[in-house]
Specification:
single chain; 1 helix; 12% helix; globular
Length: 68
């Protein structure tokens, strides 16, 4: 499966995201900003600069394997 996605999150709930990715961390709040995903499911490039609603930011750049 190949993905090429360029999206703007308005807002993205960290609670919802955490349910799927890391339920034990207890994420809360929301983030806004661009999200770029490109590649195959086992070699997905991610680029995102999100602003946290309560202050701060998250800058993620790298690759991930969603198949394992």
């Amino acid at each position: 499966m190949w993905v090429d996605m360029d999206a703007q999150m308005h807002p993205l709930s960290l609670v919802t995201l955490g349910r799927f990715s890391a339920p034990t961390i207890g994420l809360r709040g929301t983030v806004n900003g661009p999200l770029r995903l490109q590649g195959s499911i086992n070699n997905m490039a991610i680029n995102s600069q999100m602003t946290i609603a309560d202050g701060g930011f998250v800058d993620v750049r790298g690759t991930m394997d969603l198949a394992t």
